[in-house]
Amino acid sequence: MNANFQSWLGDQIQTLKDQNLYKVPKILESPAGGRVRMNGKEVVNLSSNNYLGLANHPKVRQAALEAIEKWGVGAGAVRWIGGTMSIHEELEERIAKFKNVESVLVFTGGFTANSGCIPAVVSDKDVIISDELNHASIIDGVRLSPAKYKKSEGYVFPHKDMEALEKILQNTQNFQKRMIITDGVFSMDGDIAPLPAIVELAEKYDAFVMVDDAHASGVLGKNGAGTTSHFNLYGRVDIQLGTLSKALGVIGGYIAGSAKLKDWLINRGRPYLFSTAHPPVVAAALIAAIDIMETDPEPMNRLWANTKWWKDALNEAGFDTMGSETPITPVYVGDEGAAQEMERALWEEGVYALSIVFPTVGRGKARIRTMPSAAHTQEDLEFALNAFKKVRDKLGIRA
Questions:
Q1: Taking Cα atoms as reference points, which of 220, 167, 173, 178 lies closest to residue 195?
Q2: What is the rounded (10 degree) CA torsion for 196, 202, 208, 210?
């Protein structure tokens, strides 16, 4: 191995440690749930995206087992050269019906759905207009595109600032196409995009809208259909991204929209073209998860009941939850070192709640991000609340 390269890596890692930005992942040793075993210790898990508790649901597990017997464990090819099985098509049809759109194309992940879709639908004659707090997968997808997009050139608007968005739309009318991109639910703050206002501005100025519903899928809208459903904007959002790895409990992502959009992405969405298809067990498990979401309201009701209790309890105890509107509940700390110290102290108390620091959020805006779910019991949440209060008082942390 090259000594200079290895030395450079060591220096970069040490810099992260010096800046309190270094992370080592904990290892999950049990099925995903409200209480789990990690690194040999039982903890309340407040850092999971398993919103509805479907990752270990009996019906989802049974569907997966049956699919292995019927289909085997792999598709054997990328989708366009023989890896598309009828169960993949069934999954896409079910999601399209669930989202109330013409067509859906499934990708291996939400990140690859963004990096596959965004560059494919714009050219060097176009501009992408983006909320400044959009997820990293949106940002990377935008960077891969040939369109204009840079903040320094005036194409990124302050978070949820509709006046700023309108000014950008007014100043970009010379472009062939204008694409407005936003998260539906912002993953670090837990707030909801003002999608009705965005859509109205897009229609006024002849732009089109893409919304990333990764954290709205299974959380907002009818049966968890997302922000377009939540705001009753059916037929007015051109591109919807959804995830299959959070509320649905499995893995993958998808792009929902028109039949023409699907046809184009089949031919030009590079991660779709060059990635092996999902194992059929994934598709079967996801179909079962959709069945549950459509027929059993209890998981979603429990998610929101737990969310309300958790937010109310934290706020009453004096924690700053940063105006979150969804199960994503940040607890503001500010200093990166203090946030990492709080994460370690919570772990010692039996709570796994991850600190979020730069570059995921801005410098000096560190927080502990918590995620109540349908899998948590009242006892789990009460235990976690007591741990938060104990750690805060022990460390003397004040927002």
A1: 220
A2: -30
Rounded Cα distance, 135 and 141, in Å: 10
**Are residues 222 and 196 in contact, defined by beta-carbon separation less than 8 angstroms?**
no
Multiple choice CATH, 22-51+297-395, 1.25.40.10, 3.40.50.620, 3.90.1150.10, 3.20.20.370: 3.90.1150.10
Q: How far apart are CA 48 and CA 17, in angstroms?
A: 25
Summarised one tens digit per residue, pLDDT across range 297-353 is 999 999 999 999 999 999 999 999 999 999 999 999 999 889 999 999 999 999 999
Active site residues: 187, 215, 246
Provide the greatest CA pair distance for the chain. Answer: 60
Strands annotated E in 275-345:
329-334
Beta bridge partners of 106: 254
With CA atoms as reference, report the closest residue to 52 among 233, 201, 244, 207: 244
| pLDDT tens digits, one per residue of 32-53 | 999 999 999 999 999 999 999 9
Angle between helices 378-395 and 336-348 (to 10 degrees): 130
Can you give the pTM of this predicted structure?
0.94
Helix (H, G, I), strand (E, B) or coil at 347: helix
Per-domain boundaries in the chain: 22-51+297-395, 58-295
